[in-house]
Design brief:
The complex is a heterotrimer of chains A (258), B (305) and C (351). With 258 residues, chain A is an alpha/beta fold. Chain A is built from 11 helices and 10 strands. A 10-stranded mixed beta sheet of chain A has the order 5-4-1-2-10-9-3-8-7-6, sandwiched between helices. Chain A is globular and about 55 Å long. Chain B is an all-alpha fold. Chain C has 351 residues and is mainly alpha-helical. Chain C has a domain at 110-350: MetI-like fold (Orthogonal Bundle), CATH 1.10.3720.10. A two-stranded antiparallel ribbon of chain C has the order 1-2. Classes of the chains: A alpha/beta (258), B mainly alpha (305), C mainly alpha (351). Chains in contact: A-B, A-C, B-C. The interface between B and C is large, with 103 and 106 residues. Chain C: It is found in: Cell membrane. Chain C: Residues 18-27 have a biased composition (Low complexity). Chain C: Part of the binding-protein-dependent transport system for phosphate; probably responsible for the translocation of the substrate across the membrane. Chain C: InterPro entries: MetI-like, MetI-like_sf, Phosphate_PstC, Phosphate_Transport_Permease.
């Protein structure tokens, strides 16, 4: 089910502020693409534009195209809600719904879309929790609130919640930045497994992480404060980390940035 | 405590390790502390005094089971006994109907302000008007409903007219508390919901409001407790009846505050008992709603274990 | 390595948290305050969203319209009666509306009694409320601050009719000797002169003002407390580190920071006092004599005058006279509350 994404000349704005300038890149299906770059370079903004979360902010605007298997997600006939159902997202900080139990958290997307069949919901909950490597840890307390789990468990719960609606693409916005090293490792293992079925795009500040989990890496940078962020180069991860074609990329990954 | 005075650099002798605080500063500090504590004590005095008065004068009255089961129907003003269930009914029903109207309005206004309004002109105007509404005196609210409901539309005085006036007093309170509660719902939850492909309205109804529910309901209970003690609207908009009237929409209807004002013209011992009995009953109802608010907030607050 | 990169964060990456939201979201890139769906090129709005948004926006509009309607309806009802008024509405001290063919009424006395009793109440309540707010935010032991604050809030939970009864029947008699002493020793000052009602009975502006003060204490305290709580800890710690005593800390950090909030809170209290109805209706003794600037006068405020006459509103023409008075009260409280709001509006740090 995994689909490919093609971004064509994407420009993103917050009001008058031009946040991202002219990004074009292709994300192949069943692979992991990492977005790296300094803070403020627009990598998260680009990620959020891939499932139309960017426009949730007031005054936010999008120009250019994002194609999901050839279909423009910004076409006027497309409902942003459908786009987000097809392209799931995991956030920087784990954000389980505090009023819901672990099980209800996982199936929240389905329940809110009107699925009532309890048997089906239970199935999906188990499958998704297994998919997120969390089943064994929580199977005895599915009715407890999600807020009682540890940070790493909560983040895997959020991943389970995202894959429960069976999206084609999974976007992850610095999913490990709020987690300890052991939980981070668990999530990274999970990403490697998930890519068998999903197209994954991950934003990370951690370059080792990008090197460990991704097949393709995109480096974003901005030329100065107040300037829009740009995509500097995108290539196989191995190539980016060993022999990048741009000097800025090399400076950044070797720590000589700025 | 040490002081701010810098050491005298020209002095050769070693100064003491800790400089002492000058007496004047100590005295000032002491006086200020005493005054601040005193202010709090002064405020506690009338509270205790009022409650003592109400309990001492009213408590013996409400021990009689008749107080809760009978009305004052057929009793002469000097005859002791009887009860106030007709007024309790009026107070509760007028308050609850007011709540039924106010809660949806208040909730939607708060949702508008937090989720839709942003920094638009209308949102600013609405916030301003909610503030103004908070300050509208209850007598003015009553006069407005009188002009609208009774003079313009031609309806008679009734319990429902009272409820309408109370709506004006209750809505701003609900808007304020709900707004505060919605604001502290983290945006991350809204985003998580959008990212699952949930439409905005459903996100608000199923995620945002449930998360804030305990706070909202607490606010509603407190607001209810407040409007039930309002006297000015019942004075203007309802006629007193010493007997039970179940019909909110027609005829004279008693409520505890109205009963108290009516009995003020009764100089007998029976009048005294009725006034203070009604006072303690009102205080008990208000206390009950306050307790209910606490229980609800404990019971519904998002849990972690 | 990464630490260094993080440190490169440019200046414009502050969090997009909205008013009142505790920086819940450390926005990684650019500020993203998510309140409204952006204006879309694609006008694809779900019906559910459209209805819900309509209801919410409609409710907002309703509130704005409501305030306008209050003013408008009171005005419509008042105008015919004002036309029948045989004396000047604003400057006359008479009030007789019984004979609709010869209505003579003016608000001067009502206005004076209302303002004087509220001002007196404010004078008492302001310093005490300040003290309580300081006590609750700075002095009270941390664990007790909340229950203590709850006690003060309880003052607001007591219905005003009970304050009225208590004020007249319990507090009034206690205040009588104080009043008698004041009139006999300070009677040469007009404010403490013998009034136009019996001090014995206690139905004076003096009693009313003290009860009003008790009633507005909780609102002034609550708002002031909230502002004092927002004093930046850095200011306080700075003062403490200089070796300031507790009082010096308060004087140099908390009070300057919270001054505007305190003034605004007091205005809110004033608004409450101006409109208080039933307590004053019960306490103030009626009198035929005009207000003579003494605290030991009786009389009526706007609200108590209306409340006393309300059960007999039958002829729209005489009711209109009271509605006209109500309109003046509405305008008065509107102005006071708007002023309170505008004071705070200039202070972003309170939000």
């Amino acid at each position: 089910m995994a689909k490919r994404i093609d971004v064509k000349d994407l420009n993103l704005f917050y009001g008058k502020f031009h946040a991202v300038d002219g990004v074009s890149l292709a994300v192949p299906p069943r692979s992991v693409t990492a977005f790296i770059g300094p803070s403020g370079c627009g990598k998260s903004t680009v990620l959020r534009s891939l499932n139309r979360m960017h426009e949730v902010a007031p005054g936010a605007r999008v120009e250019g195209k994002v194609l999901l298997d050839g279909e423009d997600i910004y076409a006027s006939s497309i409902d942003p809600v459908q786009v987000r159902r097809t392209i799931g997202m995991v956030f920087q900080r784990p954000n389980p719904f505090p009023t819901m139990s672990i099980r209800d958290n996982v199936v929240a997307g389905l329940k809110l879309a009107g699925v009532k069949n309890k048997k089906k919901l239970d199935e999906v909950a188990e499958r998704s929790l297994r998919g997120a490597n969390l089943w064994n840890e929580v199977k005895d307390r599915l009715d407890r609130p999600g807020g009682g789990l540890s940070g790493g468990q909560q983040q895997r719960l959020c991943i389970a919640r995202a894959i429960a609606v069976q999206p084609d693409v999974l976007l992850m916005d610095e999913p490990c930045s709020a987690l300890d090293p052991i939980s981070t490792l668990a999530i990274e293992d999970l990403i490697t497994e998930l890519k068998k079925e999903y197209t994954i795009v991950i934003v990370t500040h951690n370059m080792q992480q990008a090197a460990r989990v991704s097949d393709q890496t995109a480096f974003f940078n901005l030329l100065g404060v107040g300037q829009p962020g740009r995509l500097i180069e995108v290539d196989d991860t191995e190539k980016i980390f060993s022999n990048p074609s741009q000097k800025a990329t090399e400076d950044y990954i070797s720590g000589r940035f700025g | 405590m040490t002081t701010t005075q810098t050491a005298d650099l020209n002095r050769l002798a070693t100064p003491p390790t800790f400089q002492s605080v000058s007496t004047a500063r100590k005295i000032k500090n002491g006086v200020a502390t005493a005054l601040v504590y005193l202010a709090f004590l002064i405020a506690v005095v009338p509270l205790v005094w009022v409650l003592y008065t109400v309990i001492q004068r009213g408590f013996p009255v409400i021990l009689d089971i008749d107080w809760w089961q009978k009305s004052l129907s057929g009793l002469l003003s000097r005859q002791q006994g009887g009860g106030v269930y007709h007024a309790i009914y009026g107070t509760l029903v007028q308050g609850l109907v007011c709540g039924l109207i106010s809660v949806p309005i208040g909730l939607f206004v708060a949702v508008y302000l937090v989720e839709y309004g942003g920094r638009s002109k209308l949102a600013k105007a609405t916030t301003f008007m909610v503030d103004i509404l908070t300050g509208v005196p209850s007598i003015v609210a009553a006069l407005f409903i009188y002009s609208l409901w009774i003079t313009t539309f031609g309806f008679g005085r009734s319990g429902f007219a009272v409820s309408l006036a109370l709506v004006l007093l209750m809505v701003p309170v609900i808007v304020r508390t709900t707004e505060e509660m919605l604001k502290i719902v983290p945006d991350e939850l809204r985003e998580a919901s959008y990212a699952l492909g949930v439409p905005k309205w459903k996100t608000i109804v199923k995620i945002v409001i449930p998360t804030a529910l305990s706070g909202i309901l607490t606010g509603v209970m407190l607001a209810l407790a407040r409007v039930m003690g309002e006297t000015a609207p019942v004075l203007v908009l309802a006629a007193y009846a010493p007997f039970i009237n179940y019909n909110l929409f027609d005829g004279p209807m008693a409520s505890l505050p109205l009963l108290m004002t009516a009995e003020r013209n009764n100089p007998t011992q029976a009048g005294f008992e009725r006034i203070w009995g009604a006072a303690i009953t009102l205080v008990l109802i208000i206390t009950l709603f306050n307790l209910l608010a606490t229980v609800i907030s404990r019971w519904l607050a998002p849990k972690t274990k | 390595m990464n630490e260094r990169i993080v440190a490169k964060r440019p200046a414009d990456t502050d969090t997009g948290a909205r008013r009142g939201v505790p920086a819940a979201r450390p926005a990684p890139e650019a500020p993203i305050p998510p309140t409204t769906e952006a204006e879309k090129k694609a006008p694809h709005v779900r019906p559910g969203d459209r209805i819900f948004r309509g209801l919410a926006t409609g409710s907002g509009v309703f509130i704005v319209v409501l305030i306008g309607a209050i003013g408008l309806f009171l005005l419509i009802q008042a105008i015919p009666s004002l036309a029948l008024d045989k004396v000047n509405f604003l400057t006359s001290r008479e009030w007789s509306t019984g004979d609709v063919n010869n209505m003579r009424y003016g608000i001067l006395d009502l206005l004076l009694v209302t303002v004087v009793s509220s001002a007196f109440a404010l004078l008492i309540a302001m310093p005490i409320a300040l003290g309580i707010a300081l006590f609750l935010t700075q002095y009270a032991p941390r664990r007790l601050a909340r229950p203590f604050a709850y006690v003060i809030d309880l003052l607001a939970a007591v219905p005003s009719i009970i304050y009225g009864l208590w004020g007249l029947f319990v507090l009034g008699p206690v205040l009588t000797p104080i009043g008698q002493w004041l009139t006999s020793t300070l009677g040469f000052i007009p404010l403490f002169a013998e009034g136009n009602v019996s001090i014995e009975f206690g139905g004076t502006i003096f009693t009313a003002g003290i009860v009003l003060a008790v009633m507005i204490l909780p609102i002034i305290t609550a708002v002031t407390r909230e502002v004092f709580d927002r004093t930046p800890p850095a200011h306080v710690e700075g003062a403490i580190a200089l070796g300031a005593t507790k009082w010096e800390v308060v004087r140099t950090t908390v009070l300057p920071f919270g001054k505007a909030g305190y003034v605004s809170a007091s205005m809110l209290g004033l608004g409450r006092a101006l409109g208080e109805t039933i307590a004053l209706t019960i306490i103030l003794s009626a009198t035929g004599t005009a207000f003579g600037w003494s605290l030991f006068d009786g009389g009526a405020t706007f609200a108590s005058k209306i409340a006393l006459a309300a059960p007999e509103f039958n002829d729209p023409r005489s009711a209109g006279a009271y509605i006209a008075a109500g309109l003046v009260l509405f305008v008065l409280t509107f102005l006071v509350n708007a002023a309170a709001r505008s004071i705070v509006a200039g202070h972003k740090e309170y939000e």
